[in-house]
Design a protein that fits this description.
The protein is an alpha+beta fold. It is 50% helix and 18% strand. The protein contains six helices and six strands, in the order αααββββαββαα. The protein has a six-stranded antiparallel sheet, covered by helices on one side. Strand 5 (147-150) and strand 6 (153-159) form a beta hairpin. Helix 3 crosses helix 5, helix 4 (116-139) packs across helix 6 (193-208) and helix 5 packs antiparallel against helix 6. The protein is elongated. The two termini are 22 Å apart.
Length: 213
């Protein structure tokens, strides 16, 4: 969405109130004023679109994940615990693009642990998962799958599904729930995962029939 520079004359008390609110929301003065004017004039801003997407996600995943409050309108963190000794925490962070084009945003999955064994399991699972996703998307003629894996952190770009905000939220929630189900199955019994992998792969490819993400 194009932006231009304009000069406004505002009361000092108004600016102080705007700055306080902008700080609370984790945004800039200009961006907050833009949002307030857009809401009053029924214009759709990137922040409105992102809030609607995340609102849809929250409604669909709240029973399965703890939703962490974020100061940024573009970021949502979903947290859950693994069925593994000490119940380590795993975070799914979705960061949306303000103006999406080929990609709507990025998903980062991180595990909170200092155990090298657990980190190794995490890396092993996401090596498998990245291969599955890349192959399944390539079979549909998509060559735009991008991901990175480092110790305890997996990230991938989310392909823009070109849907309305509510449907985009549904697509993201379906993907994260599918991914978490596979993660939980793996960590519950790493040595037996191959027994469950074919059915999980089938579920993922079935999801792709609804949403390419």
């Amino acid at each position: 969405m194009k932006k231009s520079v304009y000069s406004l004359v505002l009361m000092d008390d108004v600016i102080k109130a705007v700055d306080r609110e902008a700080y609370k929301r984790g945004t800039s003065r200009s961006n907050l004023i833009n949002q307030i004017l857009a809401e009053q004039l029924s214009c759709v801003t990137p922040e409105m679109r992102m809030r609607e997407i995340f609102g849809s996600v929250a409604e669909l995943v709240s029973s399965s994940f703890h939703i962490q409050q974020q100061r940024s309108a573009s970021l949502m963190t979903l947290r859950t615990a693994l069925e593994y000794k000490y119940r380590p925490t795993i975070n799914y962070k979705v960061e949306l693009e303000r103006v999406p084009s080929e990609y709507i945003g990025t998903l980062r999955v991180q595990i909170r642990t200092q155990s090298s064994v657990l980190t190794g399991l995490f890396n092993s699972f996401f090596t498998y998962r990245a291969g599955l996703e890349s192959s399944a998307l390539a079979a549909l003629g998509r060559d735009d799958y991008l991901c990175e894996l480092s110790d305890g952190c997996f990230s991938r770009r989310l392909i823009n599904p070109s849907l309305d905000p509510e449907q985009t939220g549904e697509a993201i929630s379906c993907y994260v729930k599918d991914l978490d189900r596979s993660v939980q199955t793996y960590f519950a019994a790493p040595h037996d995962f191959q027994r469950y992998a074919p059915e999980l792969a089938k579920d993922y490819t079935a999801m792709l029939e609804r949403f390419i993400l």
